[in-house]
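Extended Data, panel c. Modelled sequence:
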Amino acid sequence: MRNIALSGTWRSVIQGGNITITAVDVDRACIWIASERSNADADIEMDVYKRGLPDDSYEMDKVAPTELVATLVSSANRTVPDTVSQFEIIGSFEDGIQAAAWSPDDSLLILVTGKSKLIVMTPTFDVLHESVLHTDEFGEDAPINVGWGSKQTQFHGSLGKAAAQAPLASSLSSVGISPDDDLLTRISWRGDGTQFVVSAVSLDTVTTLRRRVLRIYNRDGVLQATAEAIPGLEHPLSWRPSGNLIVGAQRFGTFPGGGKGREGRHDIVFFEKNGLRHGEFGLRHGTPGVGPTEAKDRKWGYKVKEICWSSDSNVLLIWIEEDSGDTIQLWTTGNYHWYLKQEIAAPSTSEGGRYTSVGWHPENALQILLTTKTEIISHSCRWETCAATARAPNDTGTVAVVDGSSILLTPFRMQNVPPPMASHRLTLRPSPSAPCRTLSTPCHVAFSSREDILAVLWETGYLELWNLNTRLEFGRGPVMMPDRLWSGSLDSAQFREISVRTNASGDNITRISALGFEKNGTDVLHVLDIEGESVNAPEVPTLGSLGWRLAIAGGTVIHRNGKVHEYDSESKQLTLRADFGTTCDVVRSIDLPESPSLPETCLYISLTRSGTLSSTTPSFPVRTLAQNANSFTVSGDLVVYTTLAHEAHFVPASLIATVDAGTDVGGERRRVERGSRIVTSIPSAMSLVLQMPRGNLETVNPRPMVMVTIQADIDEGNYRKAFLACRKHRIDLNIIVNRDPKLFRERLPSFVEQVRDVDYINLFLTSLGFTKFAAAEVISEVCDAVREQLEAQDMEKYINSILTAYVVKRPPDLEAGLRVLLQLRERIPSAVEDAVKYIIFLVDADTLFDVALGMYDFSLVLLIAQHAQKDPREYLPFLRELRALEKYYQRFRIDDHLKRYKSALQNLSLAGPEHFDDVKAYVEKHQLYETALEIFAETNQFREILNLYGEWLFERREFGQSALVFIDAQRPQKAMLAYEKALSWRELFELAQLQQVGHEDVVEIAYRVAGKAFLTRKTQLLRIFIKTTLTEDLVSKKRCTEAGQVLLDYAEDVREAVIALAQGNHSRKRIVLHEQPELFEDIINPAVLEARTQIAEDLIDMRSQLQKQVTRLRELRIKKAEDPEEFYGTEDSAAIHNVDVMTDASAFTAFTRYTAAPTPSVAASRTTKRTHARSARWSIDHYPDDVAVLVPHLPVHPCAPDAAHEVQNEVVAFSREMAEAFDQAPQESWAARVAEEQKERERAVKAIIKPELRVADTWRTRLVDVDATAAAAGKR
């Protein structure tokens, strides 16, 4: 869908020259020109010139000493002037040279001599290979024929074997050359330099016909293949640089050896590297059906002189020599169709309008180098997509594709026609008012920026304006009906670009701008203002330089070297509007809407040949949007571009114009097919048309473009259009509300009026109800508003939508929806059935059945059940059973069936006092205590409910709460039991005193609370209460002081109280107060000895653990010193590459292999709990209370001094060992060691605050001073 447009022309004149051939020096950016002339002796002399390309323009009479120019002449009568000493004759061939060609890397030279010998030479002209050109051999790649399908293997019927064995007629008997063949040998190299092809004329000794043969050789000169014989094959030859095709020309006609076909047919034919034909296309030149004339040259009035490919293999150049002058044609291919994109005629100033050589620049893919006898001409081309740029709603998305004298037009808004087909083919017929030698192919086409007005320009200055009359609505009839509005001519230049601007209505053409190249070597700009039949040419300043291009804009905007200028109609001058700082292939202006946030009204976007996409405004600096862009377009307010990373980007133009250059504009992106390019965008259709490298088209609807259009429609109040777009492109319909909720509520009647269709409204409500982007309150509010609006308009018509509004609310109001059915049954009985079926479609039938049942309306239940096709055997018995019950008990059964337990309890309470036992059972079953308390608060059954509640709390072990509830329920015995379980002994004995409990019962309660054994006075039987895992008492809770107080105050048992208090360090005071010193020997001293033994065992265990840790630390230090890599865990990643299976053992890191504990044995697991408990005790302060509190009693023990000193010495010795172990430990952590190899963690490690190890303060066990304690005991 792209055209080739000329972007610049450069010329250089050699006065008195006769240019025959040129060569481009890429390293020096210059071109070498060979010019021939005849001297006085009738010999041909050759001059060599050098010209810069294209900006440099100087002449050289001498060649620099470091430069080498090799000149090959075909015969000896061409000489180099004696005055030029730099030229040296390297060698000569007596029989002359027919053809020569350098390899693409200049490492080999191929020569064909006059005796048809093929010679391969080095750059120093040493012969590498020599062979005969004309040979009957096919080559090394000769195909193998196994006879399948041949004449010998076929059945010949009655003719027998003789027919099968008869020799075949030679296919070469009718193969000859075209009368226009120049009989010269041609050589063409493949782009990678691995092979070359030679086209030469050979004589058939049998038929005496000359035919042209193509032979393919490798770079060593060895024949690989010979092309199949083609009748009428001509001399042009070119191998595509990409290597897949060899191009030639074939002439058809009745001449001897011509191809069989229509007279005058002329094809460009293709061959593969194995010599087989591979397609063709017909030239669009000459008059079909006319045979050759008797003219000596150009028997058909024209002939193809040369063919050559561009360096990127995309454009094929064909040099056609006509009687009236020479022309070059540029052809491209897409979807297996060949397009004629451009025709360039030779300047009329040259003799007969002839070219002397044509070719491409070896590196610049779209730069053509042409020569006449006295001029070197360089044409720079570019790829361009001619697409309509009109804004919505007039955007048709029309794209114009030039194909010779026809323009293929496709309005993508209406149709997506794949190329090479098109919606309409506009044939451009020659006009009598056109200048002479007007070529059939226009050089440039452009659309108006406001509507489908197409401007067509030829290089001679002839132009036409067409109104395409494109249809904007779908329907029958042609999609467009083009009408030519105006035609005219511009003089004094060779034109290459055109732009047109019309007013909004399209009735009058306001301005035409054309850019061309003048004879004086500078570019020229022509502007025409047309109103009706009058044409006005305003004054335009001279450009005075080369390289100007027209921008895609609403006015006359041109740019050169990145500087964008706009023509001002009032001042008649060019005003600088922007500067991109580099040469741009394409510049497009975007008109921004007037807004306080947008200081600018115009944004310029440019794309360079290297893929840099930039933007700028008159007051903002240049911003680079992408460095790898390959196409871009503007869709409304979006700038859309594709990149070589196969992504399409969508950036708002208003954002680009307001955000600072250093800020990322962001935007959205999506993946596209590899190599995709933008053809056009249609904002009204929310579509983007992409073309793939192979030529096919793909139309997508990107989400950003869709959202922009939908939001614009919502803002304008076009709700139906926005709704249909959301429905088509699967956009959440919630956007219609969320765009502006307040405005939507105000326009709600308009929304309902526009959408109208019931199914559409149902879809809107459903989408709104199930969205995740709106609050439940907003959804319910909108549903209610829509429902009210529908009910006010026509309830019968919109009954389904009304039901939908109830269903999709959050939470759904199904009961209200069923009430609507009841109302409908009374008002419009005929509509009830469809409404019931619809609501069953929206909601599960069982759910609706339960909701109807919960409304206690059996007629509604039956209505739902019947239309839900439920089995009557399932629900009729149940309904009959319910009908037989009393009203409130019936409702209780219904609520219980629906698991509405609170409502069921309420109805059961109303069913009468005879059901109170059922109430209690129902409360206990469903734990409805709070609900029951509310229901029976003012009744006589309140205490019964409280009793149930207290028992439930007691079962949940909430004894304190249950005791309070039992007191309110006047259940003191249960309250005392609850207080006892809660160990609230003060409240317990207070309540026992209030209830006047007996003394023995109080003593019994005291022993139970304290957790001790006691002897009853009544029975004199020993009743021992042993604490178990389920017993709750003060001693087990370490509330020893409270246990002692209970035993003293309520049980009056001093001995048991001392035993309890001994654990709380208050026993000595109680013994002294009650004058019972014998308890020291019975209770205190045994407990002290047990505590001393436990401390000694713990010290032994901790010392053993410390020694193990120190030993392990030494082993790790030795391993780290011997093999640091193994110690720090440097794994061999290659050994575990692509290993996905992990075992439990592999979960350890390299470091944990030394530190992970082994699996404990069975014997060790028995003492795990004890070991863990003891290992956590690092000082005497961390001992359990029952041990720590007995240590101060050591000095008063009979063996107190010795035992106390032993404990003190053992603890101090262990403290020293611990301090020494910490002194041996490394001061830095393992992470700091790793940080030596991982520098990035160094800061984090240094920031760690390390503790100071102070032995005297930290590790000294805080025991009591033994001597001081003993002294104090002695004083007492």
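The longest helix spans residues 1078-1122. This feature is highlighted in the accompanying rendering.
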